[in-house]
Amino acid sequence: MISISNLSIHFSGDYLFKDVSFIVNDKDRIGLVGKNGAGKTTLLRILCGLQEAESVAIAVTSDLKVGYLPQEKKIDSIKTVFDEALSAFTEAVNLEEKIKKTSAEIAHRTDYESGEYYKLINKLTEYNERFQIIGGQTMQADTEKVLMGLGFSVDDFRRTLTTFSGGWQMRVEIAKLLLQNHDVLLLDEPTNHLDIDSIQWLEDYLINYRGAVVIVSHDRAFLDNITKRTIEISLGKIYDYKACYSDYIIMREERREQEISAYNNQQRQIAAIELFVERFRYKATKARQVQSRLKMLDKIDKIEVEDIDDSSIHFRFPPAPSSGKVVIETMDLSKSYGNKLVLQSLNFAILKGDRVAFVGKNGEGKTTLSKIIVGELDHTGEIKLGHNVKIGYYAQNQADLLDGEKTVFQTIDDVATGDNRTRVRTILGCFLFSGDTIEKKVKVLSGGEKSRLALAKMLLTPVNLLILD
Predict the structure, then answer these.
(1) In this predicted structure, what is the pLDDT of residue 148?
(2) Superfamily classification of domain 1-65+182-242
(3) Rounded distance, CA 224 to CA 353, Å?
(4) Domain boundaries defined on the chain
(5) Per mean pLDDT, which of 2-11, 143-152, 234-243, 412-421 is the most reliable?
(6) How far apart are CA 209 and CA 410, in angstroms?
(7) Engineering a disulfide at 34: which of 38, 149, 246, 403 sits with its beta carbon 3.0 to 4.6 angstroms away?
(8) Reported pTM
(9) Burial of 110 from C-beta contacts in 10 A (0-12 / 13-18 / 19+)
(10) What is the pLDDT of residues 19-69, one digit of tens each?
(11) Is the pLDDT of residue 313 over 90?
């Protein structure tokens, strides 16, 4: 379906890809993996034609439809959720309007034997046939099915998109992409904005998808459940494995052991040659042999072994004031939105040291309860916070609340107090921000990087009750 040959592209003098070649076949399920900055997103953008490379030959099947989901997208639609999702069927919606208009015109005519009348009949027939071919008759039902699979309720369908957070708006983008019935889907971190139920639904959908799928994701279970092929980007090259992610990890380790062995052998060979050259460099009788060894060094194709990226977040919570034994206590707590009762007569207590999970389907009130606890929503009934309780709240859209114009360093430096003012770089390092990364503006960070930064910012303030949505 898509054939990439001799792809090369470099940034700041270093090659991101060098003479890379591979094929995306019909029905492929490919996981695209590699270290942060290896070029996964860049490769997806090249595949869908949004970015050019210095050299590449791309051959695609005729009339191939490629759909691309970026990690983030600015959405400014004022349509309802349903109408925005329905816009995926642009051709079908246009045909539906033509069918209505032509049908109305035919109904008002009486010149049944005229050439113009027969032209209108033929037009209507063509419109109806094309409408059926592209699935126009089921577009309403298909739209409803996909939106509900991604977590929207029927009540959400008529709400305008602007009333939803950025994460929920991205779900609508996923819905549109799935409904457009592309031949190849390129998905960059599609699970970033989904909950467990929606991820499970998307897994099932993609497993049965009619076309090819290429996925970039940090969700290993998601990759394992969907992909049957893994393409790794490493040091400007790609390694193609006919395996899911877990099997690829085992095969990669075997390849790495072979590379390390070959690298060590080559280093011993190079060291021996360099020792000979150094020893006899100024000896006339050995001049020819020295030159021969130098030429041999120039011809050696140096083996490189990429370090495995096993970095992880590490931090310690700042000392927090001690709270009372009872942290939260509710009595007949209820919450309604208009006529919709979300929470009814909740009575519970959370004690110091408890670890509590709020679970339930979308719309059951998990986020609502969290917001009531932190004081962001009104309610009926009573909720009491215990003695000296200090709350740290990580909202669903916490990363979206960061100032995009500030740098990573400024974001933390602005809220750091006391001894933390001198430890901003160390704190950022604990959350995997180092080197030039701390001078990046927030708006250019990936979704995962923004989430890490938001978490670091929240944890700078000593708290004894964490609420994480």
Answers:
(1) 94
(2) P-loop containing nucleotide triphosphate hydrolases (3.40.50.300)
(3) 35
(4) 1-65+182-242, 75-169, 258-299, 326-468
(5) 143-152
(6) 44
(7) 38
(8) 0.72
(9) exposed
(10) 889 999 999 999 999 887 788 988 999 999 888 887 788 888 888 999 999
(11) no
